[in-house]
Each structure stands twice: as structure tokens, then as C-alpha cells.
Amino acid sequence: MTADAAGAVREGFRRVHGGSPEGVWAAPGRVNLIGEHTDYNDGFALPMALPQAVVVAARRRGDGLLRLHSAQGGAAATAVLRVEDLAPGATEGWARYPAGVVWALRERGLAVGGADVYLDSTVPAGAGLSSSAALECAVAVAYDELYGLGMARPELARAAQHAENAYAGVPCGVMDQMASVCCAGGHALHLDSRSLEVRQVPFDLAGHGLRLLVLDTRVKHDLADGAYAALRAGCERAARLLGLPALRDLDGAGLPAALTRLPGELVPLVRHVVTENARVGRAVAELAAGRPEALGPLLTEGHASLRDDYGASCAETDLAVAAAVAAGALGARMTGGGFGGSVIALVRAGEAADVAAAVAEAFAAAGRAAPAVLEAVPSPGARRIG
Ligand code: GLA
Asked: Do 53 and 134 touch, CB atoms closer than 8 A?
């Protein structure tokens, strides 16, 4: 995120609201390397921030109005809300996310008022790259500084998650928001979703002759929201039946006995969560040992688990993974909630173009438009940029 981005957003702010903002902040989207559908089980994940981000320019207002403008908002680009009237269900469309953050801060008893807010985003929406978390976190860091809240990063992530759960009505875990506020450039983030402890793990792709491609299938299946909630409910039911606070409290050693105590439909869910948490540990060990290429087989194994056990994949993400691996990718998997969205593929730098072309060909043969290709470069988390 450059001074140019900050300048462009300042200019947008001036055009819409007049005058200058008090500051400009950015919060990134993410890909998750491994540790999928583990966060709401209090488990582990290993996301990294993308260069693509939401940029926000903001200035406090003394009259209790929240004037929001999104460069991506189209015909509904502007929303004017009274801060004291914010309530779940009271806001529609994209404005639910920034308004939800202001509501969530007030729910925490924090004395925050109105603001003029101008938003612009380079995070593709609906691609499983956490564009909504980036939007929430950009507003959260801006408000934290504007209103002198002095909140710790995990608290900001919790407030942003609260906005998404209670205000936008999406029952997500905390990974996307933690990634957006806590990631560091050149690193992946080892996240413990129970304690919210994080560890920065060096992830030097270029230094090892590697690239991480993001293949956005540009499909999002209608069942996605309901299916996510159903999977989450299934995990919570399994934990209750096993007498555990969360599936995080089951490890590989206890898994075989635990599976005999569960109804058949919960067995594959639990197997995914337990093996996935273990894969996060293995991935972190490989990165810490300076072997990022060893991530490849773990990615492909994780995808098979999401596809066969967890049922969170779909034909398009399966096709992208299979085609990437067949074309020489070291490994590939769906990333994010699933049922569409994006696949990540770890490739040798010199083979990136061939892998992308092979995936495009496989999609053409299946009568589908080629995925959009981005490159994932481990980037910094939310911060002030102007
Ligand atoms: C979505 C949710 C996250 C997480 C992932 C799956 O991205 O927002 O909280 O549950 O799905 O790992």
C-alpha cells in the first residue's frame, strides 16, 4: 500500500465530504495457508495478509452522524446514519460492516461518536479473501486512533468479529479479522484462536524461488452461508457430545476413541478439524526450519480433507486444485470458507505462468471462464498510511 493509495483516498474524501481527513488507514485481505474451519473450534490457523487492502480516510464529527461513502458502492455509495440509532438489522448492504464496527465499539462501552468516512478497496469482493474483514478492520483501526481508544490488536479483531456476527449476521470465526490486524510483512501468522496469541513465522517465498498464486474461481454458491453455519453447528454439537469445551481439545491421539462415540455424520467433521490443527503445527515447523517448499504437500492434503471429510469444497475449487497440481504446483488448496472463492497454489517461481495457463485451460475445457490470478505476497496488517 503506497503513498499513492493514501493520496487517492484523501482526494476522494475531499470530493465527497470536503476538506481533509484526520488520517488515512489501510487494512488488508488475507489468504489462509492452512488451518481452515478451525477458528470457531478454538483451534489454530496460519493466514497471511495480502497486498490488496481497504483504505479509509476519516474525520470525526461532533453531531453524532456517521457519513459513509464507498468507492465500490455504485448507486448506493453513500449512507448517512445516526450513531445512536445503530442497531443490528437497521443497516443494509455494504454499510453494515463499517456501521457494525461503530456499534460494536459502543457496545463495549466506548465513547465513540460520528465521522466522515471515505472507503476504497482493492480486495476482490466475494472471492474468499476477507474483503468484509478488511473493511471492518480498516474502520476499527481508524476509530481506535481518532477516538484515542488505545485498544490492543486482538481487541480490535474481536470488535470487528462482533460486528460481523451480530450486526451483519455472519457467524464467522475470528481468523480473518486477526489476520487483517496482526499480520506482518514477510511473515505468516500462527494464530491460536482460543487465546488470540499470535506468532510471526518468517515466510520468505521469493528468497526460496517460490510464488504463491491465488486463483479466484469467481464462483460463490448460494448455499455458502447456510452451509457454513451448519458445519459450525455440527462441530459444536460434536464437542458437546464428547464433553469438550471445543474440538481444539481433541488431538490425534484421542481421535480414534472419540470417533467411536459420535454419530456417523459428525465423524468426518471431527476428523477434519483434528487433522487440520495438526497440519498447522507441521506447516509452522517447516516454515520455522526454513523449508517453505515443504508446505506444498500439506496444502494438497488439507484440500483433500476439506473436500472429502468436511464437504466445504466444490467442483470449481476441486478443478483448480487438481489442474494446478497436475501442472507442477508443489501443492494447492481452497482457502477461506469454501463453496467457491479462491484456491492458493504454491509454485516454483519459473513455473507460475505455466500453472496459471494449465488451470485456465482446464476451466476452458469444462466450459468455464478462467479464474482471475493474483499473487499473494506476505504483507503488513492494518496500519496508518497517511
Ligand atoms: C471464513 C470465516 C473464518 C473461517 C474460515 C474458514 O473465512 O470468516 O472465520 O472460519 O471461513 O476457515
From this structure: yes
Element (H, E) at 137: helix 131-146
Q: Nearest-CA neighbor of 210 among 296, 303, 128?
A: 296
Among the listed residues 21, 309, 19, 50, the one whose alpha carbon sits nearest the alpha carbon of residue 189: 50
CA nearest neighbour of 48 among 379, 384, 345, 382 = 379
Model confidence over 206-218: pLDDT tens digits? 999 999 999 999 9
Instruction: Provide the pLDDT for residue 3.
Output: 75
Integer Cα distance of 7 and 29 in angstroms: 20
**Is there a contact between 337 and 325 (Cβ–Cβ < 8 Å)?**
no
Which residue among 32, 34, 39 is best mutated to probe the pocket of ligand 1, counting the most ligand atoms within 8 A of its Cβ?
A: 39
Please provide the distance, in angstroms rounded to a whole number, between the alpha carbons at the two ends of the chain.
11
How many whole angstroms from 91 Cα to the centroid of ligand 1? 23
What pLDDT, in 10s, does the model give residues 324-377? Answer: 999 999 999 999 999 999 999 999 999 999 999 999 999 999 999 999 999 999
- What is the grid cell recorded at 267? 465423524
The domain over range 203-375 is classified in CATH as 3.40.710.10: no
Q: Which residue has the cell 489468504?
A: 31
Other C-beta atoms lying within 10 Å of the C-beta of residue 327: 19
308 as an active site residue: the answer is no
pTM confidence score: 0.98
Domain limits, CATH 3.30.230.10, in the chain: 3-201
The whole-angstrom separation of Cα 347 and Cα 351 is 6
**What residues does CATH 3.30.70.890 cover in the chain?**
203-375
Rounded to the nearest angstrom, the distance between the alpha carbon of 174 and the centre of ligand 1 is: 8
| Ligand 1 pocket, residue 36 CB under 6 Å | yes
What radius of gyration, in Å, describes the C-alpha atoms of the chain?
A: 21
Q: Could you give the CA distance from residue 322 to residue 319 in angstroms, rounded to a whole number?
A: 5
Query: Is residue 386 a contact partner of residue 6, using CB atoms and an 8 Å limit?
Result: yes
State the cell numbers at 228.
457454513
44-45 vs 331-335, strand pairing mode? unpaired
Out of 85, 176, 216, 309, the active site residue is 176
Q: Which CATH architecture has domain 3-201?
A: 2-Layer Sandwich (3.30)
